[in-house]
Design goal:
globular, 459 residues, Growth Hormone, Chain: A, mainly alpha
Length: 459
């Protein structure tokens, strides 16, 4: 090639547009989405393996209900210390430590009953392991909210929180058929082995790649400014020293702080609505597959695929709710309207689960369950609302408090359903109980009042 041709080629290369670069915040969101998918696969693994495990180890229906609820007992109790740890040490370190520990506990379930074990001992061991799983997973969703607060401007945060929140539906859609097939072909123990391998791989990836927006080497100055100027709290997890901006000031967790947090009407509305939303979630990730086996007579292999249908629509509804909310904001609607309108419409649709009691058609029942879960997905904007209203000085503590109240439903719902099914011999009362929570969520939205960020008075 001649010098003139080389020079021309160089000029052409200079004029050629650069390849579009995926913003780093979207890769961060993809990572927490994948981790949350595995997180929910871990906590819902017993819903698919429950019938097989129950038959293998000899559990009663009530014992299985208590085992289903064990996760939430510890998950709720550990929320507040988990949130405090996040505010003290940041999401990167706490999330990594949490992920390793919950993966170890998940893997340990595969060893229960390998040697002949009395039923009561097996129940106790699995109950304790599920308690530990709940404790170790407790920082996960507050950490997701903290990452979204730091990495996303306000106008994108509804979509961001909807995406990581929709991972719970995607987890069921993806893993229910896989876990059903593995249980059918190889036995329930291998489900927990698979989840253990995935968890350790994700922990290594998180530690190697994750950082704060200010310090992440992949973040361009333009992206950083877009996040910062749009309301992202970019220094929420910035380390002290090293020339970086100071760490976000944290409120002292004293009596005055607690009074201000728990006196906020908006937060009590969030607590109540999140409890109601999670009641539907816990029905689907605990008793729904058992209902299909015991109440509708489906095989375990069929259940894995049927259980995925509501989850797929829940995933779509979750994304739709977040995109609708952010779209309303861009069109000039108030933050209150943008968050509440999709929430109210979605939770009204969720009450359709009660209509399953009015038909014997399995096809229609699955269709109604799918509609209910789709509506629940649209209405599940609690995490977006929390990131909108939480004071930055105690953002993770407030998120953890919301998650604690919300996941109290994981204690109540599995136990109530276990007792009602054993007492009545059917799921009729249980389905009305779950449907009523769609209306309870509307009460929470009314209590919430206008959505705006809470500010602390000087202590």
């Amino acid at each position: 090639m001649s010098d003139s041709e080389t020079e021309a080629a160089g000029r052409t290369a200079e004029r050629a547009p650069a390849r579009p670069r995926i913003p780093t915040r979207f890769l961060v969101l993809a990572l927490i989405f994948v981790i949350t998918v595995v997180n929910y696969a871990d906590r819902s693994s017993l819903s698919i393996t429950g019938s097989s495990l129950q038959a293998d180890l000899g559990f009663s229906t009530v014992q299985l209900g208590y085992i289903f609820s064990a996760f939430s007992w510890a998950y709720v109790i550990a929320q507040l210390p988990g949130g405090m740890l996040l505010d003290l040490f940041g999401a990167r370190r706490v999330y990594a430590f949490s992920l390793v520990l919950w993966t170890l506990v998940t893997l340990a379930v595969s060893f229960v009953g390998l040697i002949t074990t009395p039923v009561l001992v097996a129940v106790t061991v699995i109950f304790v392991l599920r308690l530990l799983l709940g404790a170790f997973e407790s920082p996960a969703f507050p950490a997701n909210a903290r990452v979204a607060t730091a990495w996303f401007p306000t106008a994108e945060r509804g979509r961001a929180t909807a995406i990581f929140n929709s991972a719970q539906y995607f987890a069921t859609a993806l893993f229910a058929p896989i876990m059903g097939w593995i249980t059918h072909e190889f036995g329930w123990r291998w489900v927990f082995v698979m989840l253990g391998v995935l968890g350790f791989a994700l922990a290594a990836l998180w530690l190697r790649w994750m950082d704060s927006p200010r310090n992440h080497p992949r973040v361009s100055p333009e992206e950083f400014e877009k996040i910062r100027s749009g309301g992202g709290i970019v220094d929420l997890d910035a380390p002290k020293g090293g020339g970086a901006a100071p760490v976000q000031e944290r409120a002292p967790l004293n009596a005055a702080t607690f009074r201000q947090i728990f006196a906020a009407r908006a937060l009590w509305g969030v607590y109540l609505s999140q409890y109601a939303v999670n009641a539907l979630t816990y029905f689907f990730i605990t008793w729904f597959p058992v209902y299909l086996v015991q109440g509708r007579g489906l095989s375990l292999l069929e259940v894995g695929f049927v259980a995925a249908l509501p989850a797929v629509c829940g995933f779509g509804g979750g994304l739709l709710g977040g995109f609708l909310s952010d779209g309303m904001l861009r069109r000039g609607y108030s933050l209150t309207a943008a968050r509440k309108v999709p929430s109210v419409v979605g939770m009204l649709l969720a009450t359709s689960i009660g209509l399953c009691n009015l038909t014997d058609s399995s096809v229609l029942i699955v269709a109604l369950m799918t509609l209910a879960f789709f509506g629940k997905g649209i209405g599940a904007l609690g995490w977006a609302i929390t990131t909108d209203i939480a004071p930055p000085q105690a953002s993770s503590f407030v998120a953890a408090t919301m998650n604690a109240f919300g996941n109290a439903a994981g204690i109540v719902t599995p136990i109530v359903i276990g007792y009602t099914v054993q007492a009545t011999g059917s799921f009729t009362v249980a389905l009305w109980f779950v449907a009523a929570h769609g209306l309870l969520a509307l009460v929470g939205f009314a209590v919430m009042g206008p959505i705006k960020r809470i500010t602390f008075d000087a202590a």
